[in-house]
Structures are given as C-alpha cells and as structure tokens.
Amino acid sequence: MSPIAAQPYLLTATLRQPERARRYGTRDWERLVWQSRAAELMAQLHLALDAADVLRLAPAEAQRHLNLAAEIAARHASAVQSELRELQEALHLLDVPVLLLKGAAYCVLANPASIGRIFNDIDILVPKLALPGVEQHLTWAGWHPSNTNAYDERYYREWMHEIPPMEHKNRATVLDVHFTILPPTSGIRPNPQDLFDSALQLPGEWSFFRVLAPTDMVIHSACHLFFGEFHKGLRDLYDLHRLLSDFSARAEFWPGLVARAQHLRLGLPLLDALQQCRRLYETQIPDDVIAVLQAQVRSPWPRFMRAWIFEHALRPAHASAFGPSTRLAHWMVFVRSHWLRMPLPLLAYHLAHKALFAQ
Length: 359
Fold this sequence. Notes:
With 359 residues, the chain is α/β, with parallel strands linked by helices.
C-alpha cells in the first residue's frame, strides 16, 4: 500500500481527539486538510482544532485553508438566514405548516450541528395537500423547477417524497420541498401528520416555521443518510453526532428515541446511524439503546456485509482514504439505496430507463 493511501481515518480521528494533531508533520496536515475538504468538514475541523489550541501549530498553508473554510461557513449561515426570510415572505399568506429540515433547522435552532456547516440547499416539509399552493407561491417569488424532463417529473411526483428541486431565478439557491420523509415506494410509510403533530414552533423571528421534534430530527437525519448514497456521508454522520451529543443531555431523550423509531418503523436506519456514530466519532450512546434496537430490527443484508460497506463507504473521497474497496462499497451503497427505496420491478424499470436515456 502506498504511503498516501494509509490514513483513511485521519480526519475522523482528529475530529474525535484534535490534540493528536500536535504530533502531525507537514504531510499529515496536507492530507488532513484535503480529507476535510472532500468530506465538507473543513470548518468543523477548524473549530475543533481551534478549541483545542492546536490550530496555531498547523503549517501556514493549512491555517490559511482552514481559516478560509470557517469564513465561508459563516457566510453560508448568514445566507441561509437571509434565504429563510425570503421563504417566509413567499409563503406567509398560506395557512399551512412549514417545517424546516436538516441544515436549515439546525441553523435556526443554533444547534451545534449548524456550526461550520456548509449548506447546499434548503429543505422544507409541507402537507401533501398544500403542495399546489406552495408551488404557486414559490413560483411567484422566483423559484422555478430545476431542469427536468417528463420522466423526472413522474419520478419525483409519483415515486419520491419530494417534488423536483426548485432553484431561484436570481439567487440560484436550491429549495427541496418534501411532503414526507421517505419515498412511498420504499414500503415504509410513516404518517407525515405524526411529524407535524410533534413538531416544535419556533420563537421570535422564525415563528412562521416549525422544526421536527428532537427524536424525529435524529431519525430523519438517519433515514436521509442510510437510505441514501453517502455522497456526504461523513458530514451527515457528524451532524448526527452533534445532534445526539446535544439532545442526550435530556434524560427522556434515549427512551423517547427508541420508542419513536419503533412507532415510525425506522429502527434499522437509526441503529445503523448510532453504530456508525459510535465507531467513527465515539458518540456516547447507552449500550441498552443499541441492544434494544438490535433485538427489534432485521435486515436482509447480512450484518458482516453491512459493516464492511459502511466501513469503506464512510471515508473521505481523497486518495489517502479512498481506493478500489471504497469504490466498490460506494457502488454497493448505490445499489442498496435504490433497492431500499423501490420494489424490484420498479427499480429495474428505473435503472433501465436511466441506462437507455442517459443524457
């Protein structure tokens, strides 16, 4: 194995114990910076190193990259808040609940998961029956569907849990409008009304919006990652680590999380998320929570195979962590994600269409 391919866990080990960077040489810093950039965790790394008083020991070029990442993340947070004000203005006349999901929710809550985070889009959840009015008001405010063909329109509106992404004509910001948290074709259909009933009203400036309850926020984040393709796997898992570390300060959180996952029939993605958070970020999770979930859930994928896939796919897309096994794992994750979201006949039809009519 070449020297550059020998540090697949440099980034996660440093995020767990930033003090270890005191021993890093120039090549280690170089790999650490590029791994963090590939994983979209550079600003979070900056925060961890700075808090441990280690950042000042980094080479000047590494400091420059990390400082710039922190500045960009701060601008992203400001831009998200500005975009949410525009969104509120566009939808305030509609008498429908609008839930912020993922990064936007973390941002308005000032949750630790938002600190240093890069925001690629804004995700909202609205009732399905409200979609026509929501789309109309967003269109009037300058958001329009991204370039899609007739097949893509059908794919989103009949088989997925969201409408086609919308992009603002002037600001180029991307908005994902969801009406549930999982594709209906997955066979797991949590009732969206459950999520709205448990949602929390935000105070002050953001009182127009709501956010998922803490247990639902964790479960949704776990579903988003472990029903997906791991494009930003390490970043999304770090979000989960920060959410869990914050919410677990409440005594009722862990029993409530297990009960909620059982009620929504989403114990498997939650178990995967908790196990991988513990493995990569040493998140403090009670053993009995893992044991209860293991007893409750089953997967047709053997445990050793899932462990191998997650171990290899949850690595930064950089040569020091990425190799043939990682590419194979990502292909298997791609297959697994589609298999989880679609029944086999529909999956075969979808993949055949994509293969035959790929642009």
